[in-house]
Amino acid sequence: MICNNCGHQLENGAVFCPNCGQSVNQGNQVPPQGNPVPPQGNPVPPQYNPAPVVDPYDHTAEFDPKDVHDNKIFAILCYLTGLVGIVVALLARSSVNSPYLSFHIKQALKISITTTLVSILTVLLCWTCIVPVAGGVCVTILEVVSIICFFQTCSNKSVEAPIVRSLPFLK
């Protein structure tokens, strides 16, 4: 038996053509469903619709836009000036309960504490050759992370600081 629609060889007793989906019944012609296959036998590739990717470290949607607008300067200050900015932001947060500002204070504090610990270890082990170099590289990397956080905050994003986000303190 041969399909009237695409000419594909069918098994005896087939109800639908496995190639194009056309009904084999001569009197009851049903249009093919889904992606039709051209008569040349080249199948149409299926459409791939991947699920949207969600960044688990991006907390931007959790904060009220008014809270972001009102406290953005203090959040930027945390990354821009280090511990001084954190203290100023803590003082500002004491007058206004801002989850947005608290998030950025924690992130900047993580970076500052990690930078301080690396600096202390570098000073304590300065008599070796490799530790001062490695400590300098680590402090530079942490400063770059702080700059990345600064620019993300300037663009109204609230993303956990890379590298230090996996540290267990200040969760």
Report strand %.
under 5%
**Envelope shape:** elongated
Overall pLDDT confidence: 84
Number of helices: 4
- Helix-strand sequence: HHHH
Low-confidence stretches: none
| Number of strand segments | 0
User: How much is the radius of gyration in Å?
Assistant: 31 Å
Structural class: mainly alpha
Estimate the helix proportion, in percent.
40-55%
Our measurement of the CA-to-CA distance between the termini, rounded to an integer number of angstroms, reads 69 Å
Sheet with most strands: none
Describe this structure as you would to a colleague.
Helix content is 47%, strand content 0%. The protein is an all-alpha fold and 171 residues long. Helix 1 packs antiparallel against helix 2. It is elongated and about 85 Å long. The N and C termini lie far apart (69 Å).
Structure, briefly:
This protein has 171 residues and is mostly helical. Helix content is 47%, strand content 0%.
Which short descriptors sum up this protein?
mainly alpha
Ordered list of secondary-structure elements with their pairings:
Blueprint: H1 65-81, H2 83-95, H3 99-124, H4 130-154
Helix pairs in contact: 1-2, 1-3, 1-4, 2-3, 3-4
